[in-house]
């Protein structure tokens, strides 16, 4: 176990100052077989027998070699006085050194490093002290007859023990301290030994400077490495903070942009609702009727105009007013624009100035939705109505109102001066706003059925005009009853012209009295009552004043014409007339005449 350890003087071979020379001689020499041992010996009993009841005795020290030089550690006269009382038993550490030796070296296994990783030696660790070179003990310090073992050639010599404090003085005042081995000159440092996985531990060696701890076999990072890691962690933290800040700023910025910023006013608003509406509401009526309503742009010789119409059937027939298509004449252009935005060119089918109605037809258009027709005889005053048109070329304009009156006799036109272009209408009056551009558009009931064709308005300071000039609506609009429009449209589609019911008499339009008076002579030189006509057969004579038609009072010649044209040719009428201050009632069947 002690192979490779240098031989040094044992404690029992050191001189004891208080021992007398005679006592050392009595101890005798060392056993002869000490050369075969490691310096240990067995203490011999005292030469003089001692009484067992005489108390304790003190062991004698072995003799020191004669050539050992003893140098007192402290002068005899100046030895310090011990701080404790002398120990009569000389028991270490308070007494003299006893029969004990240093503990054998303990081997502690080190952590096995990772394959290929070397454990740094003590000399490679910064700040660690370099162990001094092993010094061979002097030959005079060895025990006589015991050769000093040489260190093993492969294992490095253990470091020399650090100088120890002087041993406490013995009770004798002149006792010198044991000598310590003289340090030798430092020898050249041997080459660094290979890493030893079983590091030797010497409990008496000087404590080495603390080195880096080793837990998994890898070296502990140096200060520079720790600084680099700190800088990397700082940079990574800064980048992470920038990313988080940027993301948060983006989210906040997006929210502020969409919501108008911080502190702005955000008003409450209703959510999205269904686009469907009840069928009898204005919105519901408009949703169903708008796809069938069109806008007409007419151009002719030096004239142009805009109006409205609606689809009659899936063959492309469209009904509108005569004064809307009049600028086109016989060689003009008519462009029809549907509610979807599609356009198509149209041709004139027929028109009639007396009824102010016309029919055009578009070609090459499929999927047309005809607008259903109602019955104007069922309309009552106060019924809700909806008007659709393109006032001032604003297509798809929807207005609403009620039926203000029925059978309003109105006349329109008359620009020619001969009365041939005057229209006589037994109209429906409405307060639904109708403006220039609404002409020819439909007047709808609560079921989205056509009950009239918007034709004229009365504006402030003017009479009833086809387009009402440019004054706009004042709540007085007039529409041709759909019953009359249906008959005229069918005749225009089938024959190209319409027929007018007639009584066969000539009226005095200058008569200012109440009723319609039959002229006394024809303006063209003919008889005022057509020979063989309906009036002549009923007994009407020149100068008679007609006051009622079917029980309805008439106040002028225009009203009589309007009431008459509200019927079809062949219808029977009952007239009340005055002749010579007396009233009489006659019945007649209406005749027919060609329209223009």
UniProtKB/TrEMBL annotation:
One Pfam short name: Trypsin_2
Species the sequence originates in: Streptomyces violarus
An individual GO BP term: proteolysis
Ranges of Low complexity composition bias in the record: 69-81, 135-145
Region of interest (Disordered), residue spans: 1-231
EC number: 3.4.21.-
Every PDZ domain range: 501-581
Keywords: Hydrolase, Membrane, Protease, Transmembrane, Transmembrane helix
InterPro entries: Chloro_Bact_Ser_Proteases (IPR051201), PDZ (IPR001478), PDZ_sf (IPR036034), Peptidase_S1_PA (IPR009003), Peptidase_S1_PA_chymotrypsin (IPR043504), Peptidase_S1C (IPR001940)
SMART domains registered for this protein in UniProt: PDZ
Family: Belongs to the peptidase S1C family.
Protein name, UniProt field: Putative serine protease PepD
Example GO molecular function: serine-type endopeptidase activity
Superkingdom of origin: Bacteria
Major enzyme class: hydrolase
Biased composition regions of type Pro residues, renumbered to the chain: 89-107, 146-196
Gene3D superfamilies noted in UniProt: 2.30.42.10, Trypsin-like serine proteases
Positions of transmembrane segments: 233-256
